[in-house]
Amino acid sequence: QVQLVESGGGSVQPGGSLRLSCAASGSIFAIKVMGWYRRAPGKQRELVATFTTRGTTVYADSVKGRFTIARDNAKSTVYLQMNSLKPEDAAVYYCYADISIRLGQSPGDYWGQGTQVTVSS
User: Fold this and answer.
1) Which of 22, 38, 111, 116 is positioned for an S-S bond with 91, CB 3.0–4.6 A?
2) Regarding beta strands 10-12 and 2-7, do their DSSP bridges make them parallel or antiparallel, or are they unpaired?
3) Does residue 106 register a pLDDT over 90?
């Protein structure tokens, strides 16, 4: 089975920074998509940033220029560097991955448990 584990969440003042990590482990053949979503209070889950199947990056307009997604393929890990954090960035951040467990098999969706990010003065 595949497991995604997030870390790096916490509490920060406006303008501060946090770095989130998500490590995938288990029966992994290939990671097709891997990125970050978030769910803020009173809102639905939304895409924050992700690597596409072609290796390009996609960012939500609200975080462009402030957040940077990176990955370490050898470690099956994706990172989210969050700078200039705003109160509206406060949310539970979830790691998402589309993973094939063996050659020729259709990929499946996997989610982490989430890590809390709080931004307050």
Assistant:
1) 38
2) unpaired
3) no
Cβ atoms of 52 and 116 within 8 Å: the answer is no
* HSE, side-chain direction, 13 A CA sphere, residue 107: 15
Bridge partners of residue 27, in order along the sequence: none
d(CA 19, CA 37): 14
Q: Token pair of 24, please?
A: 């995938």
Show contacts of 74-79: CB within 8 Å, 24+ apart: 75/23, 76/23, 76/24, 76/25, 76/28, 76/31, 77/21, 77/22, 77/23, 77/24, 78/21, 78/22, 78/34, 78/35, 78/36, 78/51, 79/19, 79/20, 79/21, 79/22
pLDDT band at residue 10, thresholds of 50, 70 and 90?
A: very high
